[in-house]
Amino acid sequence: MEHTGQHAKRDGFSSGFGVLAATLGSAVGLGNIWKFPYLTGANGGASFLLVYVIATLLVALPVMIAEIALGRKAKANPITALQTLAPGRLPWWLIGASGMLAAFLILSFYSEVVAWVFAYVAKSVAGSVLSSDRAVTEAAFGTLISDPVQSLVWQWVVLLSMGGILLLGVAKGIEALTKKLMPLLFLLLVLLCAVSLSLEKAADGLAFLFNPDFGKLTGGVVLTALGLAFFKLSIGMGTMMTYGSYFRDDQDIPATAMRVMSADLCVSLLAGIAIFPAVFTFGFEPAAGPALVFITIPAVFAQIPMGQALMVVFFVLTAIAATGATLSLMEVPVLIIQERFGLPRRKATGVTLGLLALTGSTCALTNSTLAGVTLFGMNLFDLFDFVSSNLLLPAGGIFIALFVGWVWGLDSFRQALSNEGRLRNDRLAYMVYFLLRFVSPLLILVVMLKGLNLI
Ligand code: PHE
């Protein structure tokens, strides 16, 4: 059904389980399997993990609940939603606009990492990356990212497949797929952990992941952990507001958010446990950066029977997990364009993809054609990541928290969380409200100022 969102009935998730699957599908993605391990590795291991968990509980979870509640109340894209809920003079809708910008910045590099995953599916079929020789896996990854043609073509393959799925309809296409395949990814990760834990220097890997060294915690590291918490739960940019607008009226919002948060954390930890023992056993560098997963995972698979076939399965499942997250990122601009400009979904998707092919190519070519191009000391790939995760998402979080805490108000918030009085969760609502009104905005602000060396 084609609808412009103005008068037609709005699309929405079909069942309670569907809501959970889609929301979890947005949260779980490359953030868990690619970003979490490499950031943990580069920022000192356990101490980073600890700050990340605290940021998730005190800041990200309340903001997630707030975003979903706002979206469900307004039943519109983030810009319209904030205009409806805040008819006053302050331009709260800018949160939605900044979310759209963040979506493009994130998608530009995210789609390139998905491209690497797609390429690794092909490479694992060909058997060219499977090895526990560090030199071999590093060279394989290096060749891929420094080849402009491969990098671009794989990115286009990703963008086109995502566009195709979006057109099929999120609920029936991806929601159905992720619901079936996510458990499989989970199982495969558990298997990988078992293999990794049997490696010679497994204990060193675990110690790195679980023994904190607080000397490594600088303001910048804390800001990165906070940014990761936002990125992981897809918040601060309107994704959860958009998904909230598809939530059913009888859905228990805080319970859903808590389940998503816990499952998401589990997947990240499993990825960490699968990777760090291998890092120490095979002499990789924990601080290898974005390459980390792509060079270590093949080494783990090289240790087990049927490793090649299982590696194919692993990258296919990772691609599927990344797909759910990518679609939720794209849904923000698509819905905004659709509802604000009254365009059919097909055209809104086309416009989004066209823009993405342009902005995304800068990230695809970062390690080849544009290798020398830097801004503020970062290449474009890292810059887009930094600006979105460490600036736009936390800033979005501040304003969402302030909006709920000071403008929308306790009564509206309580009503929304209790499904208009049908659920008994008043105490929880007070607690989350208190966090949103005072704790989260202040904490985010201090971490941002400190992380940017402004205080
Ligand atoms: N949470 C997703 C992941 O971990 C990424 C994402 C960020 C999705 C922001 C939507 C919005 O991979």
SSE order and pairing:
Elements: H1 16-27, H2 30-42, H3 46-74, H4 78-85, H5 94-126, H6 134-145, H7 148-168, H8 171-197, H9 202-210, H10 219-232, H11 239-244, H12 253-281, H13 292-301, H14 307-341, H15 345-364, E1 374-375, E2 378-379, H16 380-417, H17 426-451
Antiparallel strand pairs: 1-2
This protein binds phenylalanine (PHE).
Short description:
The chain has 455 residues and is an all-alpha fold.
Question: How would you characterize the overall build of this protein?
Answer:
With 455 residues, this protein is an all-alpha fold. 75% of the residues lie in helices and 1% in strands. It has helices at 16-27, 30-42, 46-74, 78-85, 94-126, 134-145, 148-168, 171-197, 202-210, 219-232, 239-244, 253-281, 292-301, 307-341, 345-364, 380-417, 426-451, and strands spanning 374-375, 378-379. β1 and β2 form a beta hairpin. The protein binds phenylalanine. The site of phenylalanine has 15 residues, from α1, α2, α10 and α14.
Notable characteristics:
2 strands; binds phenylalanine; two-stranded antiparallel sheet; 17 helices; Amino acid/polyamine transporter I; mainly alpha; globular
Secondary-structure-derived class: mainly alpha
Number of domains: 1
Q: What is the typical, i.e. mean, pLDDT?
A: 93
CATH architecture: Up-down Bundle
- List low-confidence stretches: 1-7
How far apart are the termini? 52 Å
Largest sheet: 2 strands, antiparallel
The hetero compounds bound to this protein are: phenylalanine
